[in-house]
Amino acid sequence: MQPSSAAYVDLEQLSALREQARGLPLHARQVAASVLSGRHETRLRGRGLSFEELRPYWPGDDARLIDWKVTARLRRPFLRLYSEERDQPVLLLVDQRMNQFFGSRRTTKSVLAAEAAALFGWAALQRHDRVGALLFNDETIEELRPARGNRAFMHLLGRLCDLNQQLHARHHGDNPQALNAMLERTRRLAGKDHLLILISDFNGLNDETHDLLAALRRHNDLLLCWTQDPLLIELPSGGELLASDGDLQMRLNLDSSSQRETLQRLHRQRQQQILDWPAGLRIPVLPLSAAEPAADQLRALLGGEHG
Pick from 173, 176, 175: which is nearest to 204 by CA? Predict the structure, then answer.
């Protein structure tokens, strides 16, 4: 029996997103274009591909960059600086834990995360960047180092599909510590000058998460995608809601105004936490809903040409 397409994703679906990724930029509209740059003009100094600027010589500058003609004319040393174009490795950090295996409409958060990862990866390949991933669930972290080419990326997507299709309602999950464990592994792998795209519902977010992201942000560009389901945003008007952690079950009476208000307050608090805590780090957060196709949402949030 094939898994439900609403609950799971397969390689054919992720491969088909290639055309929808065309023209999708890998930077957020609310952040300056230079913050999340990718394969275009970076601030590398030295002999490069294109002229950038002339500026006065400062003590400690490389004397080999002195423009002697300008220096002679102005009678003080000036440097001729260039910017170099280089690729920026992209690491997709994709959450496939049991807390992601939920969806009240179109699909699950775990499928949404896989779709978003595929779109970002295809967009990066179209810019000739290398793409890798850290795929994690409640038990394992799978590391795929950045590589070029469709063949390597299809292998990455195949591994992502495998993790996605291992999710099952009978599995006992709930490992909030896995988020920070994955970020610690990322810190060792990424080094510097990567674009890191974390796609998760941020279960397990705490002060350590903030510190790990701050450490990663010092030497890399980060983009956070918050996967969410609209159920708590738009609660049913009445009836009962059954909630379970896999072991225990709780029935919530949505006819009770106090229970409705409690659920909505908890959701607002979590929403505020997730949207506010990266602000001091200048890391953009893109909210993604499992009720809508990932491609439509990313294009609305990031802009770019329609594929």
Answer: 176
Give the number of other CB atoms < 10 A from CB of residue 175. Answer: 17
Instruction: Compute the distance between CA of residue 306 and CA of residue 5 in angstroms, rounded to an integer.
Output: 25
Neighbours of 303 (CB within 10 A): 13
DSSP code, position 246: S
Tokens at 212, concatenated: 């790990």
By DSSP bridging, strand 195-200 and strand 90-95 are parallel
What is the per-residue pLDDT across 249-294, written as a single tens digit (0 to 9) for each?
Answer: 445 555 566 666 766 676 777 777 777 777 777 788 889 999 999 9
Closest-CA residue to 232 (of 273, 186, 280, 269): 269
Q: CA 114, CA 163: separation in Å to the nearest integer?
A: 10
Q: Which amino acid is at 243?
A: A
> How far apart (Å, rounded) are the C-alpha atoms in residues 73 and 126?
45
Q: Domain ranges for the chain, please list them.
A: 11-37+88-302, 50-83
Fold of 11-37+88-302: Rossmann fold (3.40.50)
The structure's pTM equals: 0.75
> 3-state class of 158 per DSSP?
helix
Question: pLDDT digits over 212-249, tens only?
Answer: 999 999 889 899 999 998 876 665 665 555 554 445 44
24: left (phi over 0), alpha (psi -120 to 50) or beta: beta
d(Cα 7, Cα 112) in Å, to the nearest integer?
10
Contact in structure between 132 and 63 (CB atoms under 8 Å): no
229 alpha-carbon distance from chain centroid = 17
